[in-house]
């Protein structure tokens, strides 16, 4: 291999889900097997990096200030579903079971992996509660130890003086799997069967 190839492979290997072999295969594919596709890929990366960012309100992907869900007047803004990652939101949207809005934390508390409250999208959730008419928070976080710790932290640090019902979904969801791997029917019953938390 060449130094530039190895540098590319090193960066690819740092991407989630890619190990040594898969990063090597991708680098070979891009540089040697299908080099004609490379300019399109580079252009798509640059364009996405330029226009895609976090919705300033909820943390979902957006190309303007607000994501499509926050900008949709028909959504019920008083009910906020808190999820770990954007793909969880996508799974819930696909189930068509929820007409409220979301808040994406972009992770869960994990002292072992060095993830503390300051690393998660907590502050903007506090700001939303303080500024808006949130009446219910639905915690759709993973039902593992870290998801549970995140739910506890969140409920303990709600801004004082706001009457908010906090509920937790989890009924019927696979242990540790969370919403991402659940089918639409399971997600719908998990939302309908949400229980009071606290
Ligand atoms: Zn949003």
List unreliable stretches of 5+ residues: none
**Fraction in helix:** 40-55%
Count of β-strands: 7
| Residues in β-strands, percent | 5-15%
**Shape annotation:** elongated
Radius of gyration: 20 Å
Number of helices: 8
**Distance between the amino and carboxyl termini:** 57 Å
Q: What are the bound molecules? A: zinc ion
Structural class by helix and strand composition: alpha/beta
Strand order of the biggest β-sheet? 4-3-5-6-7
State the order of secondary-structure elements, H for helix, E for strand. HHHEEHEHEHEHEHE
Structural account:
42% of the residues lie in helices and 14% in strands. It has helices at 3-13, 20-33, 38-51, 68-71, 86-95, 123-131, 145-156, 184-192, and strands at residues 53-54, 61-62, 76-83, 100-104, 136-139, 165-168, 195-196. A five-stranded mixed sheet has the order 4-3-5-6-7. Strands 1-2 form a two-stranded antiparallel sheet. The protein is elongated. 26% of the residues are buried. The structure holds zinc ion. The site of zinc ion (ZN) has 8 residues, from helix 4.
